[in-house]
Amino acid sequence: MRKTQITIDVELDENHIPENITWNAQDGGVEKEETKATMISVWDDKAMEALRIDLWTKEMPVDQMKMFIHQILVSLGNTYQRATGEEDVAQWLEQIAEEFAVKSAIKM
């Protein structure tokens, strides 16, 4: 069995707030790539629930956070469609993403 790693390094200030976030992905050729935010979800099949880590730095602008959330919502629809084949639900998720974009003022 082959293994690979994706790692995220977080530098915290004295109040435990992220100041710097970098990530590495061996197979993707990514090394110490800076980012302002990350959201990680894993599935706990014993508890039947999603576990999450949401981090963003003090320097993450609110307008970019809105765009980040919008793009995550769009990708959830794509992932759902690929995982289930349920195009109607995937389209509904895309509509929610577009409504979010309008309500958050990133799209008119």
Automatic annotation (TrEMBL):
One short Pfam name that applies is: GldC-like
Judging by the UniProt lineage, the source's domain of life is Bacteria
The molecule here is called Gliding motility-associated protein GldC
